[in-house]
Amino acid sequence: ENTAIASLYDNSIRIDSLIDFYFESKINSLNTLSSDKNVIDYLLISNNEQFNGAEFRQAKNEIMHKLDAIVKSGNGSSCAWIVDDSDQTIISDSSGISDSVFNMKSSEWYQPIVTRNDKDYIWFSSPESGTINDDSKIQLVKAVIENENIIGYIGIDVLYSNLKEYLLSCSSGSNISLVIMNNSDKIIYQNYLKSNSTETDFENSDIYSIFENLNNNFYKTEKVTEGNKNIFVQCQKNFSTKWSIITCYDNTEMYQRY
Fold first, then answer.
1. CA-to-CA distance for 180 and 122, rounded, in angstroms?
2. How far is CA 53 from CA 35, 57, 254, in A?
């Protein structure tokens, strides 16, 4: 059992680091854009009814290039965007500005960001829609703050299919499986149960009750017996996403030797 627990711990640390690595470039892009002079100038001009048209177009064009570069970097981002206080939006690869693309005040990310008013805070969504599929997206959103006031918001949409493929590679070992849940305990990814299993199936499993016990007791190891399986489980909170990462190590083969 000591060998299994040590392997579980090593894999938990490794997977946690790999998730940080996956989002690192996207977080860096948001941090860079939120302090970028062109972005700040554009938002200040856009929020001013008496703006200079030439300055506005120049700032907008500069931003378009930067948003396009994020998507073209090949890091799984499907879209990058910036929205001002009146819901005017610039989207990567678009021909111009769209009106009320996001209806931001009804967006899931809007209230948490406005409430915190924190220049370092990045909001991570769960995959869009009630049912996770490969067409779903995960949004990363950050406020642009100038003189302690929010003047706009920047976001990156990540393809869930790209994240799913990456997470699958993180837990590619035959005896390692992974469950990821957000702050509301919604499943973001899991390869513990069969691919056609539902969230209800997982919530009715023995491992879910273990997760509930571990959710505020990180890096404690629990043993689960399901049928003829003997599984060690560990949970930790990922620093970047604030998601709960549950790593499972199937020790059945080793257990049956003794």
1. 18
2. 22, 6, 70
Instruction: Dig out the tokens for 193 from the structure.
Output: 């149960």
List residues bridging with 234 in a β-sheet. 221, 247
Whole-number Å distance between alpha carbons of 58 and 53: 9
Q: What is the pLDDT of residue 256?
A: 42
CB 235 within 8 A of CB 211: yes
Phi, psi of 137 (to 5 degrees): -130, 155
pLDDT digits (tens, 9 = 90+) for 174-223: 688 888 888 777 788 888 766 555 656 666 776 677 766 666 666 677 78
Contact, 149 vs 84, CB < 8 A? no
Instruction: Name the DSSP letter for residue 125.
Output: P
8-state DSSP, 126: P
Angstrom distances, CA of residue 41 to CA of 35, 101, 107, 207: 10, 21, 25, 51
CA distance 76 to 160: 8
Report d(CA 173, CA 151) in Å as an integer: 46
Tens digits of residue pLDDT in 82-120: 998 888 888 886 544 554 456 778 888 899 999 999 999
175 secondary structure, DSSP code: T
d(CA 230, CA 251): 6
Token reading at 129: 């829609």
* CB proximity list for 32: less than 8 A, separation 6 or greater: none
pTM, two decimals, is 0.82
